[in-house]
Specification:
mainly alpha; elongated; Non-ribosomal Peptide Synthetase Peptidyl Carrier Protein, Chain A; two-stranded antiparallel sheet
């Protein structure tokens, strides 16, 4: 039982469970936002539901509706999550690349060395 308890309390398992729950919640947010975009498209150009579109005897409408929804979800995720994350990550990386200010000891050592050279 101790091994099983250790397995359950392992940090990675808890992190994975939290990520899964947050992902499911975030999926609901993205789906609802996608529906808002689809409704706006519907207002601008008619109903974006292609379920009845057929090419000859083959009905491809549901595929087209799913494809449009996928493209909208991908765009929302890219422009609302991925791109801002990349920008923020780039700004934080630039701050990390800046050289640290010298410490008081380093400055005193440099002053000592300069005074020694002048003598």
């Amino acid at each position: 039982m101790k091994g099983f308890r250790d397995f359950l309390m392992r940090g990675n398992l808890i992190d994975l469970a939290v990520a899964f729950i947050l992902g499911a919640s975030f999926g609901a947010v993205v789906s609802s936002f996608t529906q808002v975009i689809m409704d706006l498209i519907g207002l601008a150009g008619g109903n974006p539901n292609f379920d009845t579109v057929a090419v000859g005897p083959i009905v491809v409408g549901k595929f087209l509706t799913a494809l449009v929804s996928f493209v909208i979800v991908a765009a929302v995720l890219y422009f609302a999550v991925v791109r801002p994350y990349q920008i923020l990550k780039g700004k934080l990386a630039k701050k990390d690349d800046e050289p640290d200010a010298p410490t008081a000891e380093e400055l005193l050592t440099e002053i000592r060395d300069l005074l020694t050279q002048k003598r």
